[in-house]
Specification:
Layout: E1 4-6, E2 9-10, H1 12-18, E3 25-32, E4 48-58, E5 61-72, H2 75-84, H3 88-95, E6 115-120, E7 127-132, H4 157-164, H5 173-190, H6 208-211, H7 216-236, H8 238-243, H9 248-259, H10 265-268
Antiparallel strand pairs: 1-2, 3-4, 4-5, 5-7, 6-7
Length: 269
Amino acid sequence: MPTWITESEIDPSWLQDAIPMLGNISKCSVQDISNDTRKGDKVRNGATLLLQLTSSANANNSNVTTLVAKQVATSSGKEMSLRLGLAREALFYNKLAPKVKINAEDSSTPCIPKIYFTSGDMRDGSKFVIMEDLSKNFIDSGILFGPGNPNNWNRDLPARISESYTTSTCPNSFQVANETFLAIANVHATFWNDKSLLKEEFSWLRGSCWISGKGEESWKASQGMLQSMWTRMTIEEADIDSRIQWDPLVKSILKTAMEGYPGNRSKID
């Protein structure tokens, strides 16, 4: 985990040791760019951070590079991460992501960002991942799903979209969903039927322990959280349900899934 010298500044020497390829870093200022519900009480406790790295080639010339960090740092965050196994993201980037093939049809657009540093511990839930800053060339795809997406309720969608698509046509939600599923399929195809992932060294993978007949408590915690969210959105707080633009078939499928999560491995088999 990083060494902080102030509430909004990471020790540059820690960065240089963690990521030697960055060269001579003289300063690392940090901003909390998390969604409203995930912002920290202090910058250093935010879930998503923008790192502004200042490097100096000489006394008269300095460059600023931006990277993004995702982390679990607070006690409450670690508690949930430990319960749900969220530190696995860092382990995936470190151990499996390098094996994922770039899309053969368009080798210029890999579906996984460039990762500079990862640290994840399934024993305490802590996680810290430093990756490339995608904001210059990419947009949060959730914005393209319109006002029906709860994450967009407090966003100025026309402004965000016009800023990103100044000379090209904005893709529709079907196109975005289709590209997303293709990217996910590309990742999964790399490891399809790879039984080596059932070894103990990969026990952190989602579902690995469950398939092996272990980890029932973690499974129930994960599914229970989803079921609670579903109940809150559709029953306890009807106003939220009325604001979401549900496709009837999608809502029916989700309702069936939420009511029928398997409670034992035999139902998965």
